[in-house]
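Usage

Read records sequentially. Each one opens with the input sequence:
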Amino acid sequence: NTFYFVLVGIPLTMALGLVLAVALNSGIDRFRGLFRVGYYTPVVTSIVAVAVVWRFILQDSGLMNTVLAWIGVDGPDWLNDPVWAMPSIIVMGAWRNMGTLMIIFLAGLQAIPRDVYEAAEVDGAGAWRRFTTMTLPLMRPTLLLGAVLLSVGFLQVFEEPFVMTQGGPLNSTLTISYYVYNQFGYGDYSLASAAAYVLFAFIAALSAVQFRLLRSKDR
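and closes with the structure output:
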């Protein structure tokens, strides 16, 4: 479940953060500060408060299913369905963390010299071609940094399933951190400690690989 959260949540969150950063960097100068604050607000809001709000939104008679009912769609019981519980938590996690990546990616975009884009425009490169052949390659170190920070946080995901689903239904949202918490609660300290060490070792190894890649890109 933890790796499912990481493998789906990281690309989704990075994509959302990059889209927001590109949108803010491309224009809307007058309201840029307002949008930054708005998108970053979920990051500084209490995770417990955010999770409680999302739990009400996603309950069987909540806002999400009410909106779907308006267009004739019978929505599932998102947090009590083993198929939809983890995707629901992933979406909430992506929404909450995309503001952090937006700030990081926006800083990376603003560090790219404008004359690079101007030269590409003179050569006839369109917006999409400039984005794929210039923006993404020049943003690679920043993107990798965002992936490092996000993966470390997502591997330790605990509060979202704890508040929203309590690891259910049928353990479909039971993450490693939540498992460690449960084992300490049951008094099985040896198993809890072993699981915590395994998680720490995996995070350390993944971070080492990612930072090695980051250094190689900077050379």
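Summary fields computed downstream for this record:
- The chain has one domain: 2-218.
- Residues 189-218 form the longest helix (30 residues).
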